[in-house]
Amino acid sequence: xxxxxxxxxxxxxxxxxxxxxxxxxxxxxxxxxxxxxxxxxxxxxxxxxxxxxxxxxxxxxxxxxxxxxxxxxxxxxxxxxxxxxxxxxxxxxxxxxxxxxxxxxxxxxxxxxxxxxxxxxxxxxxxxxxxxxxxxxxxxxxxxxxxxxxxxxxxxxxxxxxxxxxxxxxxxxxxxxxxxxxxxxxxxxxxxxxxxxxxxxxxxxxxxxxxxxxxxxxxxxxxxxxxxxxxxxxxxxxxxxxxxxxxxxxxxxxxxxxxxxxxxxxxxxxxxxxxxxxxxxxxxxxxxxxxxxxxxxxxxxxxxxxxxxxxxxxxxxxxxxxxxxxxxxxxxxxxxxxxxxxxxxxxxxxxxxxxxxxxxxxxxxxxxxxxxxxxxxxxxxxxxxxxxxxxxxxxxxxxxxxxxxxxxxxxxxxxxxxxxxxxxxxxxxxxxxxxxxxxxxxxxxxxxxxxxxxxxxxxxxxxxxxxxxxxxxxxxxxxxxxxxx
Length: 485
Ligand SMILES: [Zn+2]
Prior knowledge:
Strand 2 and strand 3 (about 50-55) form a beta hairpin. Helices cover about 30% and strands about 10% of the residues. It has helices spanning about 20-30, 90-95, 100-105, 110-115, 165, 170-180, 185-195, 235-240, 275-280, 295-320, 330-335, 360-375, 395-400, 410-430, 465-475; strands at about 5, 45, 50-55, 120, 125, 140, 145-150, 225-230, 380-385, 440-445, 450-460. The longest helix is centred in the middle third of the chain and has 24 residues, at about 295-320. By secondary structure, it is α+β, with helices and mostly antiparallel strands. The protein has two domains: about 90-315, no CATH class; about 355-480, no CATH class. It is built from 15 helices and eleven strands. The strands form four sheets. Strands 1-9-11-10 form a four-stranded mixed beta sheet. The structure holds zinc ion. Zinc ion binds near residues 46, 48, 70, 73 and 74. This is BnaAnng25720D protein. It holds the Pfam family Helitron_like_N. InterPro entries: Helitron_helicase-like (IPR025476). It comes from Brassica napus.
């Protein structure tokens, strides 16, 4: 039995006088005539980094003061990076001017980025998912990495990527079109775009400063082999995304200092990779929103960023097996007790702890926690599903303002969904709208097209009469028939 909740209502204490009109009351607490709670627009600005945020994204939600504090963008000033400059006029007009060229450019922005990029994407991109029946999805399979080749092509090969900047610069545009383009009705538009004033030169520094990292950028003049770039190299992102970082701005590097003088004696005094990306993907007062306006390329950038963070975490686990006390893990310890010498055949060589989000032990730990809760409190009373609706007014208003599609800003869908979910959880647990809740837990999942949904269970409601009344009035739906969970 599933109850599909598609809209949430949050707690708003009515402090108005009793004679207030219905319209004024609704607008005061954000409720529309239909009972929908509107979270408004991202009209609040972070006091530290000037990022535009929704009011519902503040920390300390019980406080409703006029100066909300946000941590999602810069963690209260911890991350303080140089802001991105406005892109060259040509790129700006391709992203903003409403005309045929812009539509063409936006549709093929990944291909155009590839024409100018110095490196190639090593992961397997699944093109089959975009079969025309839904919004565009960038799906990457396997391990992701960026590859760079020699600066000159092998004698029998055509130039590609980095080599296009070096090899035969007189015929550079023709080479680019030949390498990536196909002839068709849009060939002329493609030529027009390529003939514009994009940067055509770059200096790649062969950096040996990170001796601990074996994989680094190594450029050779002519080689048949591709070199793998470390995601810790500052040029990792600008080499792959010249249309997002047209001035070659640095990506993440180790040792970025926090944005204030530490007085709390914190252990880590540098910015993490996750914090770096969280800062970069915010719309900010005075900063160029070029990353956020790049549509399909933004999707690719997000996936790339996620894989960078994940592989960085996995490398930490790989290098810190001793600190994680991996030798005490059950299977290995049991095998050793049995006197088996060759432990390489027992389990996996690298042990991923339960602190790794999404890992096997992480999932098992949460499953066992949930089962323990059920054992203590009894069977769950409610199973509630909330799904993200890309037509929520907050999302459509934001996208209309920036002339974007839903698939261009998956981050906005997720942020609005999280606000709605928080509202729902608060409404059900703290406001006790269904009676007293002893325990509640939820899990957020992503459907194959990228929209999130959450499943929630609530246990041991005190007022069973209330449950019966609600169940008799609410429509039951087998809502998950249509959803993919
Ligand atoms: Zn901030």
